[in-house]
Design brief:
CATH superfamily of the largest domain: Type I PLP-dependent aspartate aminotransferase-like (Major domain)
Strand order of the largest sheet: 2-8-7-6-5-3-4
Number of helices: 14
Bound molecules: pyridoxal-5'-phosphate
Shape: globular
CATH class of the largest domain: Alpha Beta
Order of helices and strands: HEHHEHEHEHEHEHEHEHHHEHEEEH
Largest sheet: 7 strands, mixed
Distance between the termini: 46 Å
Number of strands: 12
Strand content: 5-15%
CATH architecture of the largest domain: 3-Layer(aba) Sandwich
Number of domains: 2
Length: 409
Amino acid sequence: MNPTLGLLHPYPFQRLAALTAGLTPPALTRINMAIGEPRHSAPALVTTELTGALDGLSTYPSTRGTDALRAAIAGWLARRFGLPDGALDPQRHVLPTSGSREAIYSVVQARVDRRAERPVVVMPNPFYQIYEGAALLAGAEPYYVNTDAAQGFRMDVGAIPRSILERTQVVLTCSPGNPTGQVMGRAEYGELLDLAHRYGFLIAADECYSEIYFDEDAPPEGLLAAALAHGVRDFAHCVAIHSLSKRSNVPGLRFGFLAGEAGFMAGLLTLRTYLGSAPSQLAQTAAVAALADEAHVRDNRRQYREKFADVIAILGDVLPASRPAGGFYLWLPTPIDDEAFVAGLYATQNVLALPGSYLSRPHGGRDPGAGYIRLALVGPRAECQEGARRLRTYVASLTRNHNGTSIAY
Ligand SMILES: Cc1ncc(COP(=O)(O)O)c(C=O)c1O
């Protein structure tokens, strides 16, 4: 076997299954707030398009994507991020992928040069676990940048030691962030772009949550627009990674896309030709329709807005929570150890949450995910409300168990 497979950490949901395996929850309906799988309905325009595209089953999909798809991707990115006409060339700058998960994996494999001495891939900490796996499988060393509440969960790239930057080949960013919901602004991208140009690394911006935000007038910034505003030519050192999974509630469609530096995209296309992971012809056809419509995306945001308002109001002062800048997670500090908290919540309320420490690694003597849980507000509104009520009851019982005195956290 490839020995690097042995370096991969168990997936967070495997760890959660092990944590809860010996516990018997009460006879209440299970509420799973651990998994970030979008559960609003898929838009009818996508399902209709898919049904009409069934003859696509008899063709191998094009790795580059159809002309219509590449034009739809470039057009959507230009509209959404306000890119000037012609800045993105559908022929040179964009590619479709089978979701953003494999896109992240492919980008890291295409960029890391194993001949370099101890290549590094930088990522926020906590993080989406594929970042670390992609780095390890590419033969690179992951470098974790802790993101803390005290800094608004910002990834402080200015604090990365020079000795690390000199070996860095890829910096992964996640905005809106999973799990913290933090959104990067233009100045933060600017700082990172300066470093990318100085040290020659690629910025791979995971923007799969870019369409889940709460102020219709203030959509999150993206890497491509920030790069142009910063005077970067032809998206040098940049690739932005997108997905329809969250935007259009179609995680099962497996459709994502990438846009960035033309030279890098050409290399990535070569890798992807061998990888054979192009989205099916059906998915490509449905994606063209999904990208042309924003009404279902606005409605999706409305549903998340309502659920965040409900849950935050229910948790109230028992478990103080504030709405994140984007994404569909609540990242909540826990009054006791996060694993013990999640086990107790399951054992007494049949609610599943994810311990924060399953999404992070100890770095610099601390574990920035420890003492947090991640709650995904993906289920129906009533289910999220009920989950929040049970969470409140559980936290109140913990507080009572401490001799009736409330515990500060
Ligand atoms: C931060 C982040 N990136 C990427 C993905 C992958 O999503 P998909 O492959 O469905 O596009 C996820 C999924 O949960 C995620 O949370």
